[in-house]
Structures are given as C-alpha cells and as structure tokens.
Specification:
This protein has 305 residues and is α/β, with parallel strands linked by helices. Helices cover 34% and strands 17% of the residues. A hairpin with a 4-residue loop joins strand 8 and strand 9.
Length: 305
C-alpha cells in the first residue's frame, strides 16, 4: 500500500508540474499521514494542510522525475520512522520555548550569569545541544535540534488550538490518560491537502483544485490502511465537502450549525470498512471547552460499530 501511495503522490506532483507555468513560482512542501506507534485504531484526525513541513521545491521542479522522487522519499521517510514515533515531535514541542542563536543574546550574557534570565538558560541549552542534532528530515519540529530551529519562530504545540483540542478529545474518549505524555502516539494524523506553500499557510485555490483528486485517493488509502473506529475532521464543512465523493459512502448523516457541523458513518464497501465520522469547524479562535464537549458528545451519539 505504501508503494501505491507513492505512485499517487508522484502522479499528483507531475500534474502540478504540468501546470507550473500557470502557478506562482513559490516553493512547495509535501505531507503524508502519520500513524502513531501506539495507535490501535481508536481515532484518526484530519486537518486542512501541513504548515511549513518538509521539502522545498518550486512547481516547475516537479517536471523532473528525479527531483520528484527525492521529494517523495523525503516526505515518506518522515512518516515511516521505525525507531521513533512519527508523532513524537508533538510531545517534544508541547510547551516548547523559543530557542535563540547565541549571536542574538545580549553581550553581557555569559551563559552562567542569571542576569539576563531566560536568555542565559537558552544559551546553555544551545551549547548542550550543538552536538546532538538528529533532525535529518525533521528540520522544523525536532525539539532536540537547535541548529535547525530558528529564533523565536519555534512551534509550540501547546499553544496550538488544533493540538490542544486533539489532546482533550483523546482524554474525553479515554484513548489516553491524563498522565500519558505520549498521547500523540495514540492517534493517526493526516491532512486533506498534501502540498502547500513551504513558507506556511494553506494551499491557494488553484493548487487545491490541481491536487484534490489525488488527495482524495491518498486520504482514502490512509483511512483503509489505519482502519480507525473514529474519524475527526477539524477542517470545517466547506473544506470537507469536496472530498465527500472521493472517500466513500456516508450513512445516517446529521448536519448542524454548531461547532460540530456533521456526524454520521463512513462506509467503504470494497474494504469492508465502516467508522464513525465527525466534522467540526477548525478550532482556532473557538471556545475550547464548548468545542471539545460538542465533539465528544457527537462521537457518543454515533457509537463505534
């Protein structure tokens, strides 16, 4: 199934490359879903697109088969980590503080004086980690690698409404306990769209249209491969709807106007697969307690079969 996904990914990049003359020349990044090492099919979470992920190629570069293959291999290697959980970075960056390069610290900071407070501690952390760079294909999110984390832009997953919501839903559904620091490893995570601007942000409309048919196939494969009992789309109904004909059959669907916008069941007959599905708004800027309660109650209204 991995090779099948790689083939679909290659077809998608080739298609984008064919249209590169009509696209902005900004570099793009790619993503493929991640299965936590302790995931046992309880929950799969789907977002919109990856932000500042792996790989940096212009659309025109996708015309080159060798460059496409290197790009694909890099993306899949990030997801296929057999030593560490691919979702360990979420735990590593939970509550992460910005890491400053030494040259940006005040001149009077010696690394031993506490006069400058946090900066000195950060300087010490920098020094202790200089020789422990293990990021390789994880240049943005590896908390252990200060060579590859830039200044004040370090990503703190605890400040992300997306990841905070996932953690609380996991706890409410008793997929993990309060004391479990490895809670990200209990889920499968993917995104609707697999290619997005390398410098951040969601894909622009033309890029979404070009990749959507392939992304639908990839998402379907990811769902079949992971076979989760529950699917949680934190995308909003408008992002989700174009994928409805691409994934499978939807049964007993109930729509609403709240934070949860759709609930029901997904059925993929040829894979003999059926799961509960909840589609909610993106959690950014939404009331956290109410959001988590609505999602949890929606899953309880559609028991896992």
């Amino acid at each position: 199934m991995k090779q099948e996904k790689k083939t679909i990914f290659d077809q998608m990049l080739s298609h984008i490359g064919d249209q590169s003359k009509n696209l902005p020349s900004i570099e793009l990044t790619g993503f493929v879903g991640m299965h936590g090492q302790r995931a046992n099919g309880e929950l799969m979470v789907i977002g919109r697109s990856a932000n500042e992920w792996i790989g940096n190629l212009s659309p025109a570069a996708f015309l080159n088969k060798e460059e496409r293959q290197q790009f694909i291999d890099q993306i899949f290697s990030r997801s296929d980590n057999e030593t560490n959980c691919p979702l360990q970075w979420v735990s590593d960056c939970w509550g992460a503080i910005p890491m400053h390069r030494p040259r940006e610290l005040p001149d009077q900071c010696s690394g031993s004086s506490m006069a400058t407070g946090e900066d000195c501690l950060l300087w010490q952390a920098w020094q202790s980690n200089l020789e422990t760079c293990t990021c390789k294909t994880r240049p943005v999110f590896n908390v252990q690698c200060t060579k590859c984390v830039y200044n004040k832009n370090r990503y703190n997953t605890k400040k992300s409404a997306f990841w905070r919501t996932i953690q609380r839903v996991i706890l409410n559904l008793q997929i993990a306990t309060d004391s479990a620091t490895d809670w990200p490893s209990r889920i499968t995570w993917t995104n609707l769209y697999k290619v997005s601007p390398a410098k951040g942000g969601n894909p622009y409309s033309t890029l979404m249209e070009l990749q959507r048919p392939f992304c639908g196939k990839l998402l379907r494969q990811e769902i079949i491969e992971s076979a989760p009992k529950r699917l949680l789309f934190l995308t909003g109904i408008n992002w989700f709807e174009p994928f409805i004909p691409l994934i499978g059959e939807f049964i007993d669907v109930v729509r609403s106007t709240g934070l949860v916008q759709l609930r029901g069941y997904l059925h993929i007959p040829e894979a003999d697969y059926k799961s509960s599905i909840v589609v909610a708004q993106h959690p950014q800027g939404k009331p956290g307690d109410r959001f988590v309660l609505e999602v949890t109650n929606a899953f309880r209204d559609i028991p896992v079969t």
